[in-house]
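Entry 14. Structure prediction run on the chain below.
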Amino acid sequence: MYEYAGCLILFLIGLYTVMVKRNIYKIAIGILTMEFAVDFFLVFLGNRKWGTALIILAVTLIALTLLIRAQAVFQSLDAGKMKELNG
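Output returned:
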């Protein structure tokens, strides 16, 4: 039961980070935190130990690649500035 509460707390921390922060790296970390919480919840629910390790690694690498590309294109990590540049 404590595992599920831990997953919920981890998910809420990620959600708070996504809602409050404007830096795109911090937003991505919040999204990845929410993903980890859901993955851990599924692992605890299915009682598997290493079922999602590769999925977590793949999503993290894809997110970092997209962030590096966004920084190169927009020359900024502020989500508000990216909206202004987009029109």
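DSSP finds four helices and no strands in the chain.
Filed with the rest of this week's runs.
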